[in-house]
Specification:
This protein has 233 residues and is an alpha/beta fold. Helices cover 31% and strands 18% of the residues. It contains 7 helices and 9 strands. It has a 5-stranded parallel sheet. Strands 3-4 form a two-stranded antiparallel sheet. The chain has a two-stranded antiparallel sheet with strand order 8-9. α3 crosses α5. The longest helix has 19 residues. The protein binds adenine. The site of adenine (ADE) has 12 residues, from β5.
Length: 233
């Protein structure tokens, strides 16, 4: 699967070389291009922003470099989904990560900074591409870079061959086939640590009782932390 990222901070993406995503690149499961938006400017100062029409605080990213960057990176024979991280986007949930991974389509991420990208960039892109404006959640970051790192990791780990034991994908919080509950608590050795014991039921070897205990723990945790996720709420 192909990923391209356009940003004014290419160095932000050094961590993609680490861990599971880094391995996926090395194994050829994915390929990633990181591009500096300023490469598509033509003035001496490599300007990417300007003051907003209508007034207001902050600066807006100019449409011309974005238009040229997208033109350069779109292969019309295999058009990408253009993903624009923004706090005003639809919320990026596990279901969105599932969809993007299943589509196997190339993903082109456009990292905005300042007050955002001139809206005509997305309007024009929609005439020829699928465009998704996505938010990580109800808080404001300084730009799309951190959001792209999070979204890419969520998508890449779903691709075949990236995670050693695919069973671990279905047992976790927010997994599509995990009945909508948050994950139960987990424990490993030692049995006793700083006066805290591993719950005895987990040592019983009784799989049905362990499964029932985990389901109840998951329900309690969900009830306290995210009651809106419980069925019927
Ligand atoms: N850019 C700034 N804030 C963001 C957020 N919450 N999600 C995605 N992109 C963003």
């Amino acid at each position: 699967m192909r990923f391209d990222i356009v940003t004014i901070f290419p160095d932000y993406f050094a961590p993609l070389q680490l861990s599971l995503v880094g391995k996926a690149i090395q194994n050829g499961l994915i390929s990633v291009g990181v591009h500096d938006l300023r490469d598509w400017t033509h003035d001496r100062h490599r300007t990417v922003d300007d003051t907003p029409y209508g007034g207001g605080a902050g600066m807006v990213m100019k449409p011309e470099p974005w238009g040229e960057a997208i033109d350069a990176l779109v292969d019309p024979a295999d058009p990408p989904i253009l993903i624009v991280p923004t706090p005003s986007g639809e919320v990026f949930r596990q279901s969105v990560a599932d969809e993007l991974a299943a589509s196997r389509r190339p993903l082109l991420f456009a990292c905005g900074r300042y007050e955002g990208i001139d809206a005509r960039v997305m309007a024009h892109a929609r005439t020829r591409l699928e465009v998704r404006e996505l938010s990580l959640g109800d808080y404001v970051l300084n730009g799309g870079e951190v959001a792209v790192l999070a979204m890419m990791e969520a998508v890449v780990r779903l691709l075949d061959g990236v995670i050693g034991n695919p069973q671990s994908l279905t047992e976790e919080s927010h997994a599509a086939d995990h009945d909508g509950l948050l994950e139960y608590p987990v424990f490993t050795k030692p049995l006793s640590w700083r006066g805290l014991e591993v719950p005895e039921i987990l040592l019983s070897g009784h799989h049905a009782n362990i499964a029932a205990w985990r389901r109840e723990q998951a329900r309690q945790i969900t009830l306290h932390r995210r009651p809106e996720l419980l069925p019927g709420s």
